[in-house]
Amino acid sequence: MKPVIVIQNCEIESPGTIGAYFKDRKIPFNVVRSFAGERIPEPDELDLLVVLGTPTSVTEYRKHDYLINLFTLITRTIHEQKPILGICFGAQLLAHALGARVQANKVKEIGPLPVQLTDEGASDPLFEGFPAEFKVFQWHGDTFRIPFGATHLAKSEDCKNQAFRKDNLVGLQFHLEADPDEVPLWCDAYAGELAEEGKTKDEITENYKAVAENTRTLGFKLLDNYFNLIS
C-alpha cells in the first residue's frame, strides 16, 4: 500500500489522533501542509486521501491557490475511484466536488456536542460498534447537503447533515481526531467565534478533556471500519 496522504490545510488543525492511529497500526502516511505551499500530490501517488479542516469557507476556496489545487486533487481522486475521507472543511469540499451545496449553518457548533446516527447510519458498516448517540468535537459554521447517491449517516440537533458515505468516499462534519492538547490553540486562534457564541476557552477545553479518551476510541473504531470497507 502506498502511504496515506493527509492534507493539512491549517497550522493548528493537525491530523491529531488520526496520525496516532496510523502509527499504532503501522500504516505509512505523509502529511502535506498545503497551507505552507507544500506540493499537492497526484492521485497516482496515493491509495487513500484524508483531507482535514481549515477556517476558510468552501464558498471562498477559489480565493486560495492551494485550495484550488486541493479541489482539483479531490475531483481527480474521485474520478479514479480512490477512497477519500474528508473531515469538517474536508467533508464540505468533498461534498462540493460531488455536486452538493455548501452553505452557512443556522448556528455555529463549537465544543464537544452529541450527534446521533440516522437509521441508515446505524446499519452502515462505517459506524459498526457505535452507540446510537455519542459526543464529538465540533467547530464549524458551514454545512453541506448530502451529495446525490450518498447515504446520510449522522445528524445533530443544530446541524442535520453530520456524515455521509458514497461508496469509498466519506465526509464527517465533526472531529473525532481532535487532540485535547491542541484544542486550546483552536480556542486562542478562533477566540472571536467563542465570544460570539458566549463560550469560553476553559469551558471548551475542560468539557473536551472529559470525553477526549472516548472520542479517540471511537475515532480508532471508525478508521478500523473504514479500512475494512476499502480493503
Description:
The protein has 231 residues and is an alpha/beta fold. The protein has a single domain (4-230), classed as Rossmann fold, CATH 3.40.50.880. The chain is built from seven helices and nine strands. It has a nine-stranded mixed β-sheet with strand order 2-1-3-4-9-8-7-5-6. Strand 7 (151-155) and strand 8 form a beta hairpin. Helix 5 (183-189) packs across helix 7. The radius of gyration is 16 Å and the shape is globular. The relative contact order is 0.15. The model has no long low-confidence stretch (mean pLDDT 97).
Largest sheet: 9 strands, mixed
Number of helices: 7
User: What is the total tally of β strands?
Assistant: 9
Radius of gyration from CA coordinates: 16 Å
Annotated CATH topology: Rossmann fold
- The first-level CATH class is given as Alpha Beta
Average pLDDT, to the nearest integer? 97
Order of helices and strands: EHEEHEHEHEEEEHHH
- Domain count: the total is 1
In helices, the fraction of residues equals 25-40%
Q: What is the percentage of strand-forming residues?
A: 25-35%
Q: Spans with pLDDT under 50 lasting ≥5 residues?
A: none
N- to C-terminal distance: 10 Å
Strand order of the largest sheet: 2-1-3-4-9-8-7-5-6
